[in-house]
Amino acid sequence: MTHKPARPISRRLFLRSASLIGCSAAAWPLLSPVTFASAPGDERLVVIILRGAMDGLDVVRPIGDPDYATYRKPSLTDGKTGPALNDFYALHPAMSDLMPLWTAGELGFAHAVATPYRDKRSHFDGQDILEAGTGLDVLEPQVRDGWLNRMLQAVPDLKSDTAYAVGRDEMKVIEGPAPSMSWAPKTRLRISDQSQRLLERVYEEDPLFHAAAQEALEISARLEAEKTAEKNGMARLPKIKGQGAELAAFAAARLREDTRIATFSIGGWDTHRNQRNVLAGRLSDLSGAILALKSGLGRDWSKTTVLAMTEFGRTARENGTAGSDHGTGGALIMAGGAIRGGQVYGKWPGLADHALFEQRDLMPTADVRAYAAWAMRGMFGFEKSLLETTVFPRLDMGDDPRIIA
């Protein structure tokens, strides 16, 4: 193993050279990285970046809003509401495996959230602002490091870790002066993200070949997840689905040791067409990752907060290709034994035409950065002024939603 860091891949450069898969390039990076940092204390924070703009309206379904059924036709929902979270919200059926966490208070959501990014709805710009954690235009050079790294710079007695050689996509959320380390999975058994996306596109219209291709992808992902688990001395993981579980299993092994901060990305959330099938696969992958973290962390799960964040939401209305387009307000997914789960946080703005942002998107009623900031305050005891000026410049955290137990 060499310890020379691999040269990062520019997402913008990759987009310009990948016209075959269009705007999905931002949602499906060549390699999905996982990044770690050591910090004092027992609290553990895992940030998962969901690249491609997850449709929060489909994940946490506001079935109690009378306008929801008008915008979301059966081609998106298949007429199924999913397990009830409360009298107003239902969970996407593909995340049913996580309902025991919801019941135990270890799974929660915040709805109608967004970064300050508006109007242009570019994957790359949206991801840059999400990971930089600022309200600044992405072309301005004032803040170039990520909000997790700025948090690490504020932690006293931060210690460095040994670096791994990595071939990776950029994870700007952790980049900056504070020491961290990176790792990316080997590709010997796994199908690359780009190849998976191409397979899905080629066979999505053919039920027989689509089913066979999906089965092959799931088998490949499960073999790799089990191999990683066994390599790290872990028991075989229950109900593990998808590539996210591989990253999560490795992350859990490190978090049981000195690592306290971990972040990785799961791509493929760009659902312009065939959303019902594509989103179900992505949510199954994410559920597998969360279950892998819980299983791998064991007793340390009780001190863990998981935040799964996306660059923006999607349109309220279904489009003409059984999908949804780039939007604004979306949903934040929270998990872990350290959170006050069993709740959907946030103020619901409604889906009436006059309540939508630009008459097309779910109106944001809260800044997603505020939830991350309050989680960091609850876990690490940071001063509110530090979070609003240094970690998240120009942020108004507002009232404490009390998401940390």
Automatic annotation (TrEMBL):
The keyword Signal applies. InterPro entries: DUF1501, TAT_signal. Keywords: Signal. It comes from the Bacteria. It holds the Pfam family DUF1501. Residues 1-37 form the signal peptide. PROSITE patterns: TAT. This is DUF1501 domain-containing protein. It comes from Thioclava arctica.
